[in-house]
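step 3/5: co-fold with dioxothiomolybdenum(VI) ion
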Amino acid sequence: MATDTLSQAAGIIGAAVPRIDGPLKTTGTARYAVDHDFPGLVHAVAVQAIIGKGRIRSLDASAAEKMPGVLLVLHHGNMNGVYRTFPHQDDATISEVRPPFEDDRIYYWGQFVALVVAETLEQATAGAAAVRIEYETETPDVRTDLSTYTGPRESSWKRGDPDKALASAPVVVDETYSTPVETHNPMEMHGTVAAWDGDALTLYECSQGVVNHRVVMAEVLGIPRENVRVISRFIGSGFGGKLFPWPQSTLAAVSARQLKRPVKLSVDRRMMFSNVGHRPRTQQRIRLGATPDGKLTAIRHDFFTETSMLDDFVEHCGEQTPFLYSCPNLEVTTGMVRRNVGAPAPMRGPGAVPGLFALESAMDELAIKLNMDPLELRLKNDAERDEGTNRPFSSRHLKECYLTGAEKIGWKSRTPEPGSMRRDGKFIGMGLAGASWAAARIPATASVELRPNGRIAVRSATQDIGTGTYTIFAQVMHARTGVPMDRIDVFLGDTSLPEGPMSGGSMVTSAVLPAATSAVNQAISRLLNIATLTQESPFHGAKPDTLTLSEARIHAKDKPASSGIPFEEVIRMADMSGITATGRTSPSWEDPKANQYSLHSFGAHFAEVEWEPEIARLRVSRIFSVFDCGRIINKGAGGNQILGAAVMGLSMALLEETIHDPRTGQPINGNFADYLVATCADLPDLDVTFLDYPDLIVNEYGARGIGEIGMAGVAAAIASATHHATGVRVRELPIRIEDLLQSKILEA
Ligand code: MOS
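step 4/5: write tokens
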């Protein structure tokens, strides 16, 4: 069946098919979570703690309760009916382990301490302002230096004797790299509409994983899973911040249960910086040992990552370190450092993004010490197999990524001395970095219905977080059946659909394609069978295996599609309401063949910066990104994923940092005026190339996954380019003008 799939697919699989949900979004027809409204719906506003650590000495809700329109004030003194659930237990993952209002303790600035529900948003807002709270204040610990940590460290991926190898290495780099707290800021802020019907709850959510969301909320609320339905049909992006439920979901559900009315609760932009996750700060010491001719002999990657007081979130910065390069002696260690901040969360390319900033910056520094081209250093140490797991790679074309990118940017013309390249009176710097991200085939289910009106419905409880998931389902249906794209209906983002995967880890495409394909193949074979069994059918009595479906018509295999009849006619002749089949994707880790391989995508970024010392201006002028992510299913949506990720990487390199006030723990730049993200005016020419080598170990399409990998390595490429232009090595992101004022390269 695999070759059949691919031959029919030739046209549409890979094409830059426009998003089928695009018109719904651009016309404002798509309804996001808090766009939902119901008769009797009331509005909730959360009250936030204004201290970063301590306890509530007293909370007086009496004035708020008397305000016009106020229906309910919830707080730790009257909250009940919620339970704890623990991350990664019972297939349920929650973001913040402590339920809202569990007790009077404050662990971070902005923590929700009360909820006011009123008839209107204005009344709820006024009510929230009238809740009187006195605190016992302690000094929060939001220290940015994580190296004060003395607790246990976890060791992973140890091989050989890295300490001995470092002690005897002729050339050593030993540097520490830091990345700040960065905050996810998808366009759509978090929000929930909760509506009960008796014992049954429907949550309109912005969730990257409706199935997990349902399980968690059932446990938190102490009700059966089948009584919870979670709907997230459209999501204004998430970047990892919407993978797991946050307290606003619990608060909306609890207050709606108590009031017996639908409740809407939005997280505002300021709350986005304290209450719904962030990429935690990291501090990473990298030690590299090498021979004088540039062969790596040792790698130590010892890092700290910050987490909250109660949640054990780890930013796995060392995940790519064991297999990116060939090196006999290696160790990665982790220390988890608690601070008075909200729970961190996965944020685009968790682990790899800060981790590769450090590792790839250190590789650049090693190249300089060796007096060697940084590209040559990468090529010389490229790993032929995964030395961490001792498995071959299913498909790795990293060298070709490097060589293609080098060609595109004109790396040959690069002269190594900092400040040695000029153009139009500006200094030019060029830097590069490698990238990698894990691939897997995660479990998925999808159903396909061939309908008597000539349409196809495909259903799965996964989500489209803006990446094109709706569209790739339709592409696969079109490829298998020839039914036009505008007659294919895709239903996602609803727990009443067959269980689908979380939109996380850049793994949805590789997971859903096999399930959807299996479902449509089964539906087609039932259809052909019914065509032979139905009295009125022109194929009555034929052998099903002599028939096929193409161009939306059933016909004999040895005759053209025009000789047959539209598929829906057979369904109507058979008096059926539709023909439905369900397909499943089995996980790659249960596949003995896939299990023999290391499954990863690879890529390289080449960045060029321009430096104008007279006005201390650094601009990124070009980025070339070359990626080996298996077969690309939609070059439009896929290319946009890498472009968007490169923009986030540029933003990380030059702009983004959430700053906590050391006195109060408040994210003091928690708004879009003070928290800088790259805008169109900051962007250079961006160029994305896909190598497009199908990885048939992962699935029959050869698709691995794209998105997160596009952000990995960008900041290192820019930091190295910056060093090349200015002579200043910045090891603590973001790169600031203040850092560059130290540049000795002053006159062109
Ligand atoms: Mo991603 S950080 O798994 O949304």
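step 5/5: annotate
Confidence is low (pLDDT under 50) at residues 1-9.
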